[in-house]
Write a structure and sequence with these properties.
heterodimer, A: 112 residues, mainly beta, seven-stranded mixed beta sheet, four-stranded antiparallel beta sheet, B: 108 residues, six-stranded mixed beta sheet, five-stranded antiparallel beta sheet, 62% strand, globular
Amino acid sequence: KAGVTQTPRYLIKTRGQQVTLSCSPISGHRSVSWYQQTPGQGLQFLFEYFSETQRNKGNFPGRFSGRQFSNSRSEMNVSTLELGDSALYLCASSLEPWGTQYFGPGTRLLVL
Amino acid sequence: KNEVEQSPQNLTAQEGEFITINCSYSVGISALHWLQQHPGGGIVSLFMLSSGKKKHGRLIATINIQEKHSSLHITASHPRDSAVYICAVVNTGNQFYFGTGTSLTVIP
């Protein structure tokens, strides 16, 4: 089976712009979670989706949003980018909510 | 206040040594995960535990729910084990909390 894929892998944006990141889970996995990793804060939980429903959201402002489609693919969107949004954004899929997490390679976002 | 604390933060070992990484948490949990992150960012799930002990190859993970503590052991450590090891918990409110990680370097 193919692993979790994320696109794009690298992205450079400027402050105030918005960005959309995409995650394709392992075939058959219906749960997708998103995480942000920065040198200062480490790994932090963003969202968790299961069967197109957002079940949980971490402590992030409303500028961070996401969705999951019927084929389990997921997107996350960050609007009005700030310098502090520069990070590695990881998604992970699992068979069931909060099951063994299979991580994608991440999207590295740089906000200038 | 961190919901998940790991120790040590950094660890250097000689090849062949037995290694222990500790994780303590302060919230009620439904599951605990041990993750491995190599330089370059890729994260691999090592274990998911809700009770007892699990073993995979040279890796052993244990959890004590009453003491809110988990340990990850590596037997006969090897330079390829050099990575950051991260403990994460799913609390009873289905929120996911990460420890700050333990950076392990195994010297040949």
